[in-house]
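Re: beginner question about structure tokens

> Can someone show what the tokenized structure looks like for a real chain? I only ever see the sequence side.

Sure, here's an example I had lying around. Input first:
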Amino acid sequence: MSDLRVSCTECGACCSAFRVSFHRSELAAEGSAGVPVGMAVHEVGNTWRMVGTDDSAADGKPPRCVALCGAVGESVSCSIYAQRPSPCREFGALASVGIYEAACNRARARHGLPRLKVEDSW
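And the corresponding structure tokens:
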């Protein structure tokens, strides 16, 4: 593993590797902020998913969140950053200070990106 430090605004591998499921209360509703309904699909019960994050894509390509803009591993952004769902808010919360989760490296590996140093506590 390297001591390479990467900003999530450069990487974005997690947005193109994992399913993002969340509670329907995180959807935008009349007069309240949240995930735009057009960017989510109903899974089951009260669970919704970000469009594009289903791991079983029929075309064989890795999942890619509909809100992800840019090129993974180069320069990315989230078109709904302020309204992103809780799984997105919680994932990589300490990346800005150089502390990465093991799942970060799994996502990076899917895109051929170098491994990052992962803290033992994760």
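Each token stands for a local structural state, so reading them left to right follows the chain. The first helix runs from residue 86 to 90.
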